[in-house]
Amino acid sequence: MAKQALAFRGDDESIESSNHGNIIEIVDSYRRMNEEVAKVTLKNASANASYTAPGIQKQILNIFAKRVRKKICEELRGSKFCILMDESLNEGKKDQMTIILRFVYFQGFVRERFFHVVSVSDTGAATLKNKIDKVFTKYNLRVENLRDQRYDGASNMCGQWNGLQALFLQECPYAYYVHCFAHRLQIALNTSATDGDVVYLFFEMLTSIINVIDSFSKNVYELKCIQEVEVVEQIATGELETGKGANQTCNLQREGATRWSSRYYSIKNLMKLFNSTSFVFKNMIDNGLIGKIHGQALGAFRAIRSFDFVFCLLLMGKIMRITNALCKSLQEQSQEIINAMNLVSSTKGQLEKLREDGWVGFLASVVSFCASHVIVAPDFNAPYLEGTGHPSQQLNCVTIEHYYRVQVVYVVIDFQLMELNTRLNEKTREL
């Protein structure tokens, strides 16, 4: 139950209760299945020897934990090791630090063991260093055997002078600090997605559109039904090919806070379900809904049918198709660092090619998408009007085509390249 994060205690553990909580109910189940267990279970035990009190449960868990840590130390056998660490909040909103050890087992296999959870008063580098030192001393882990530090990119961890990695380097010059490539890529892509105003607004609206659909099970069911009808019609007209595993129905996917790939699949699924999603919103508006729900549906419908949204949807879908391949490759356990840097270089090359030579083809795909979904595309040779369109606000006399190409496409790709060059550079490769 500790491994599965299940609650031990029940709300009501009295005899009259229909649910005594996980511990007592599990013990009672074993009592009914095993006569030997039944002899010593709760009903037959003396009142002061039932061993179900919270304090006793924690003591038992503590005994298990000590035996596990002792076994890990035996596997380590005083050899060189790496430390992986992160801090987080527990259910009681208290800071805690997790410690993971990575080492080569004496049989030649790499072992990665979850070793300890330590409560900390704050997440300052000095506090974390002091807590780790105490753990090392208690279990006879020598700092001079430390060969690798792996933390996130927070300043208290990676600070060059006073960060946790710098404090360990002062004691052991071989304890190199490595920031996970996949996490660096995650930060780079998230940063580039929030720095540009146009893209930031796009992701905000994307989240709002998905939330409006997912808020009601009726909408999700209707979206699925419409999608199934469309698939049947497209197969009948020859637009889709049939085959094993082909043309599977899907749902709109919410983006995850810590998984960049989830944003790509959010965009990919919305592109696939664009007509179906628009139809659901139209039904919500036409069905006479009032108040907040009607307003949300109307706002989402207007957004999804706007050219700005469609342009960003296709742009981010094209860019993130490139970066998603890199993201998946960097998360493979067998990935080597040299090959990883080559993949980074390849991704940069594809983005640069898209910036230099991809505009004409991309614009054609946008126009085609708008035509097939009955969305009005602007005259790209017309002047772009800033602000409210008043003549006094038109500081840059540029065309609509120039605006979308230079101030949207180029800016987004340049942000991506800048972040990739900063966080995944040659210095990392040399280390």
Question: In short, what is this structure?
Answer:
57% of the residues lie in helices and 9% in strands.
Structural features, described:
By secondary structure, the protein is an alpha/beta fold. It has three domains: 1-52, no CATH class; 73-179, 2-Layer Sandwich (Nucleotidyltransferase, domain 5), CATH 3.30.420; 186-333 and 354-430, no CATH class. The chain is 57% helix and 9% strand. The chain has 17 helices and five strands. The chain has helices spanning 22-33, 35-38, 54-76, 125-138, 155-158, 164-171, 181-195, 197-214, 217-236, 260-272, 274-286, 291-304, 307-330, 337-357, 359-372, 400-423, 426-430, and strands at residues 81-89, 95-104, 110-119, 146-151, 176-179. Strands 3-2-1-4-5 form a five-stranded mixed beta sheet. A hairpin with a 5-residue loop joins strand 1 (81-89) and strand 2 (95-104). Helix 7 packs antiparallel against helix 13 (307-330), helix 8 crosses helix 12 and helix 14 packs antiparallel against helix 16. It is globular and about 85 Å long.
